[in-house]
Amino acid sequence: MKRIALFLLTNVAVMVVLGITVNLLGLNGFMSANGLNLGALLGFSLVMGFGGAIISLLISKPVAKWTTGAQVINDSPDPTHRWLVSSVARCAEKAGITMPEVAIYEGAPNAFATGAFKNSALVAVSTGLVQSMTREEVDAVIGHEVAHIANGDMVTMTLIQGVMNTFVVFLSRVIGYVVDRIILRNNSERPGVGYYVTTVVMDLLLGVLAAIIVAWFSRQREFRADAGSAQLLGRKQPMISALARLGGLDPGEMPKALSAMGISSRPSGLMALFSSHPPMEERIARLREGS
Assuming Cys at both sites, which of 9, 20, 107, 219 could form a disulfide with 126, CB separation 3.0 to 4.6 Å? Predict the structure, then answer.
């Protein structure tokens, strides 16, 4: 409930900040007089900005199962499955969350956690991860994913994405209006070509900037989850070993909607700005340096 309240308060805060800003700049009266209803635009930006993010969060578990082919194993009698379930149970108990669903899917080494609420989440690991790591290393990866859940990272990322989306939608249309009415001097009651072209271009440009910001927050989230795993297991070495091993393996391809929730990726060059995960070397160094 606290995360839902935070979600709503963040939403309201975005609307208030945007409203105060446009009023202080004197844009509200000017634009309303010239055909742009900022109140309606703020509402539209809210729906567009948070709508998709909320829906994505709420359906994250079934979508994750469907896209990866993950099979829930909580009640499976298979010895390996029982071990994975017991590992998740131990970490969940230490983290103070309700036991998540546990699933396994066919694929190269990777794992992820998802779900709209921390007490009804899903932890999934790939067959490649189980086959290529020691049990201690798999325990560390599971601790990492449980730490994501305990930290409320799924909701946090939805909030951040929603905030960024709202600003992109709002600002791109304000800029499009200014270009159309002031620069191109369109006096028609209907928006001109300049508005639509500018809006599309700004959606793209501001969307890229928003993606960089969201990715930066995601990378900080990974550092916290690494440290969380070390705390849940009582020592750093298992997580350090797991990261080192993953650094030498080909991380499994994740569906785009789940890529930020995976344990591993390989950012490089300029694309590192858009990566949801830091380089393995940096993660290991940060974990070693932590208290």
Answer: 107
